[in-house]
């Protein structure tokens, strides 16, 4: 279904964020991406923003609003990892990951919600991870920041659900990216043994779920966590 609604995807210059932006462009949405460096895919408006800096986000939103119109769909995708075991994890390792992955989502969604409230329509889609609920050794900072998005979306649903605004979480599992391609083959095989589907996802498979959540077909879904993980995290 084609639409010309305005979408903003944070971290839309690479990986899952880029695939999401490409999918929205293909469906006819007016699509903007934030990036600290690099460019979004063809057909998108790229705006510079650092999700840990509210002023830079405000400027980015203002640019999108002037060029494309008010943001109606926001996809909070920007995220970082600083993996290490708990006893080796520094305060900065923890604080910086939480500031980007959770704090960044807060800043982006707060700024986006103003336009959504005026329009009495909006879609908030938070990109989490299977490890948010499944857990992962060496990722206490990352998994904590990603599981927190569930409480965020559900509280937002209770606040704004009556205004035709939905808030949902997409939890990808292992995705075919440059990062997973660099893993040793025996490591990849070990991961795949734990995934009932027996393979990694493509970024486009995640993007398809995100664009569906933004559509009218998903108007009555809010506060949900949708796993795209081939069955890895079942029951978590």
Explain what you see.
With 236 residues, the chain is an alpha/beta fold. Helices cover 44% and strands 16% of the residues. The chain is built from 8 helices and 7 strands, in the order βαββαβαβααβαααβ. A 7-stranded parallel β-sheet has the order 3-2-1-4-5-6-7, with helices on both faces. The longest helix has 29 residues, at 91-119. The protein is globular.
Brief description of this entry?
The chain has 236 residues and is α/β, with parallel strands linked by helices.
Q: What descriptors fit this protein?
A:
7 strands; 7-stranded parallel β-sheet; alpha/beta; 8 helices; 236 residues; 3-oxoacyl-[acyl-carrier-protein] reductase (NADPH) activity; KR_dom; Rossmann fold
Helix content: 40-55%
CATH topology assignment = Rossmann fold
**CATH class, please?**
Alpha Beta
| Pattern of helices and strands | EHEEHEHEHHEHHHE
SSE map:
Blueprint: E1 6-10, H1 15-26, E2 30-35, E3 45-48, H2 54-67, E4 73-76, H3 91-119, E5 122-127, H4 131-134, H5 140-160, E6 165-172, H6 178-181, H7 185-193, H8 203-214, E7 225-228
Parallel strand pairs: 1-2, 1-4, 2-3, 4-5, 5-6, 6-7
Helix pairs in contact: 1-8, 2-3, 3-5
